[in-house]
Design goal:
Elements (H helix, E strand, L loop, with lengths): L1 H6 L3 H25 L3 H13 L1 H42 L11 H48 L3 E6 L4 E4 L1 H8 L25 H17 L9 E6 L5 E10 L5 E10 L1 H37 L5 H31 L8 E4 H12 L5 E8 L4 E4 L1 H19 L3 E9 L2 E9 L5 H8 L3 E3 L4 E3 L1 H7 L3 E6 L5 E9 L44 E8 L10 E10 L2 E11 L8 H7 L3 H4 L5 H11 L4 E4 L2 H10 L1 H4 L7 E3 H8 L8 H8 L9 H21 L5 H9 L9
Parallel strand pairs: 7-9, 15-18, 18-19
Antiparallel strand pairs: 1-2, 1-5, 3-4, 4-5, 6-8, 9-10, 10-14, 11-12, 13-14, 15-16, 16-17
């Protein structure tokens, strides 16, 4: 029992047991002696012991102090240092650069020095192995980055999900489509999609399940695998956008359905344009029917009464003439509106202006007409146009100049003024009437094999541009100028990479991860998704009226800290900022002016943290603020919570410092952005990930085991 007490480091219990054992030994000696004594001798012995009771008590107290002194020396020299040595030795697995501080007895200090030598050798081998792993994975990383580049540049929105609807991959187009508002601006704070999140949060569950059922039915109908099953649906997003989705299956090695690919297309403008065209057709039909009926009535009257007097015939002829003019007006207006509604018939693409002119030069040149480029071409100008249709129209116009006006040479120029581009078509010594040029610009053109027909003027209107024709500027030169909006070139491709070289917007390891469930307490810690968060406040007294002024958070999915999927939002409080708090976090009242209130921010953060376990350092402090806001914001955080402060006590019970800085130093985590909400959340996330193997060393593998262990620590009893 003494050994068990010492092994548990319970000094008081060990001292008590030693003292009791000593007393039992003394009592046993006297009892043994009494066995060989007569009755008179036993009475004498008892009387003598009773008379010496005070001396015996004093000796017992002295014995107790002697045992305490000796046992304390033993604990200080061996037991406590060995326990700390064991904790530091476990730290070496999480932080190979950690070194043990030698303390305690000589033998323990020698052991610490030997462990440090082994740690140095382990670190060297670890670095060598890591270097070899990096070399071996370099080719694989290149393939992954090629996939990342491809996904980042795709204009088509792509989502890849496992069979439970958890997102394994998404590209920037998908995030923009599913998260941005109609004005293209992302809402402040969190993200609606992200790795490990459920696709059912942005797309209706029933539609996706129906599409999966269709795919499974097709798989059953074509068991030979020769036909690739596909399915699709059209849905309306929360913001009112209409989206067409195509679903394709993903199979595992055994050709079992374990996921699906969704490609999404925003067809809102297409539907709106189709509606406008339908309304235009209906309006035109009604107008034409009324006009034709009037003309038909007038013609019938003239035919039925050929001898009608001149006045009546003039009246009927006037009706026919008037209605004919109205019909022409209706058709002209319908043609203009039809041209405006063609915006979505064919997509516009970005093209460098110099490349468009090079295309024109190749198309225009012929035996009788030469085409040149002006030396004054701005190579930095980018246009967003239907390059094929625009090139065909300008080629047609150039050839009309050659065939009808005798022009032998045309020149193209390109310049920029502010956000407008000027594309000039010029020619010399061939004056052309403006009416002729207008007739050519309004002539119907057939573009491509699809048979689409529209005019140059309609094409210019579709691009939101203008056309200007001028002569003799300079003398002898005619110019047809197209004014078009410029398109800024895309920024250089930037792919967010994690420390292991993987882009953060895909993780195919999640194919094997199930979603969060009611049995989450029994799930291994390594398989859970987490939201690591921190707050900055006006002060340290939540019950006294202090408020949150900043929330920073990011997610851990599949053992990876996704720094690009973060929540970072300042909040305008109603309470004043204390000078002490400003000195800590550096957030001033000026920085908070114009920021959204907590009533707007907290629901967004709640959405960001949905279906995850919350992680924070000294979580009781942050959660007290959130709990006090439940009635005010209508938002309650009911998911499980892990606290790195308490977990540190579980892992290092003999350490006295459990601050975030001390944890980061012990575990080899670089501290960047301390005392900012997002910066502290990043440090906490890195610390938490390095704690997971240390918890496993202590036999803590599931969420329930971690939460139970937290409740046994002294800090768990702190209340705010």
């Amino acid at each position: 029992m003494i050994r068990e007490a010492i092994a548990r480091h319970h000094f008081g219990l060990a001292l008590l047991l030693l003292f009791v054992v000593q007393l039992l030994i003394v009592c046993g000696i006297f009892a043994f002696l009494a066995l060989d004594m007569t009755k008179v001798q036993r009475a004498w012995l008892g009387e003598m012991l009773w008379q010496r009771l005070a001396i015996g008590g004093a000796l017992a107290v002295l014995l107790l102090f002697a045992l305490a002194f000796g046992l304390r020396k033993l604990f200080d020299a061996y037991v406590t240092p060995v326990a700390r040595l064991a904790e530091d030795a476990v730290l070496l697995a999480a932080n190979p650069g950690h070194r043990i501080t030698a303390q305690g007895g000589r033998d323990v200090r020698i052991l610490a020095e030997k462990l440090n030598l082994l740690a140095a050798a382990h670190q060297s081998l670890h670095e060598e192995v890591q270097e070899k792993i990096e070399v071996a994975n370099r080719a694989l990383a290149q393939e992954r980055n090629r996939l990342a580049a491809l996904m980042a540049e795709l204009t088509l929105s792509v989502l890849v999900c496992n069979i439970d609807g958890r997102i394994l991959l998404y590209n920037a187009s998908a995030r923009h489509l599913l998260e941005s508002r109609d004005d293209g601006v992302f809402p402040p704070g969190g993200a609606a999609i992200g790795l490990g999140r459920s696709v059912f949060g942005v797309l209706e569950r029933g539609l996706i399940l129906h599409a999966l059922e269709q795919i499974q039915y097709q798989l059953g109908q074509h068991a030979d695998g020769m036909t690739r099953p596909v399915s699709g649906f059209v849905t309306t997003l929360a913001g009112g956008r209409i989206v067409r989705a195509h679903m394709s299956p993903v199979f595992d090695g055994g050709h079992v359905l374990n996921g699906f690919v969704l490609t999404l297309e925003d067809i809102t403008r297409n539907v709106e344009a189709a509606s406008r065209r339908d309304a235009l057709l209906l309006s035109l039909t009604q107008d034409v029917r009324v006009g034709l009926e009037k003309i038909h009535t007038a013609v019938q009257a003239m035919q039925s009464s050929p001898e009608t007097d001149c006045a009546e015939r003039a009246r009927l002829t006037g009706i026919i003439h008037s209605e004919t003019k109205h019909l022409k007006m209706h058709f002209d207006r319908a043609a203009d509106r039809y041209g405006d509604s063609m915006d979505n018939r064919q997509e516009l693409e970005e093209i460098r202006g110099a490349d468009l002119i090079a295309l024109l030069l190749r198309r225009v040149g012929s035996a009788t007409l030469s085409a040149t480029a002006s030396p004054m071409i701005d190579a930095t100008v980018w246009l967003r146009v239907d390059s094929y249709a625009l090139a065909q129209s300008l080629v047609y116009l150039s050839r009309q100049l050659g065939n009808e006006a005798g022009v032998t040479e045309v020149q193209f120029a390109l310049s920029r003024t502010d956000r407008l581009a000027q594309l000039d078509l010029t020619w010399r010594n061939a004056p052309l009437a403006a009416d002729n040029l207008a007739a050519w610009a309004n002539a119907p053109l057939q573009i491509g094999a699809s048979g689409q027909v529209f005019t140059l003027n309609a094409l210019i209107a579709r691009h939101g541009g203008e056309a200007i024709y001028c002569v003799d500027a300079p003398p002898g030169v005619a110019r047809y100028r197209l004014i078009l909006p410029v398109s800024e070139p895309r920024p250089a491709l930037s792919i967010p990479l994690t420390q292991d070289g993987r882009p953060e917007f895909y993780d195919f390891d999640l194919f094997h991860q199930a979603g969060q469930s009611a049995e989450i307490d029994h799930r291994p810690l390594s398989q859970l998704s987490y939201t690591v968060f921190d707050t900055e406040t006006t002060g340290l007294d939540p019950a006294g009226g202090d408020e949150i002024i900043s929330v920073g958070a990011l997610r851990i999915v599949n053992g990876r800290l996704l720094q690009q999927e973060n929540f970072d939002q300042l909040i305008q409080p109603r309470a004043p900022l204390s000078a002490d708090s400003i000195a800590i976090h550096g957030i001033t009242r000026t920085m908070l002016d114009g920021q959204p209130p907590i009533e707007a921010v907290l629901p967004q953060f709640h959405c960001f943290a949905a279906d995850t376990v919350l992680v924070a350092h000294n979580a009781a402090f942050d959660m007290k603020f959130l709990q006090l806001l439940e009635a005010r914001t209508g938002t309650a955080f009911t998911q499980p919570i892990l606290d790195t402060l308490l977990l540190s006590q579980v892992i290092h019970p003999h350490k006295s410092d459990h601050t975030l800085e001390a944890l980061a130093e012990r575990l080899g985590v670089a501290v960047i952005g301390r005392h900012t909400a997002l910066g502290d959340a990043i440090v906490t996330g890195e610390v938490f990930l390095r704690m997971l193997p240390l918890l496993a060393e202590k036999g803590i593998f599931t969420l329930k085991e971690a939460r139970d262990a937290e409740q046994q620590t002294a800090y768990a009893r702190i209340k705010y």
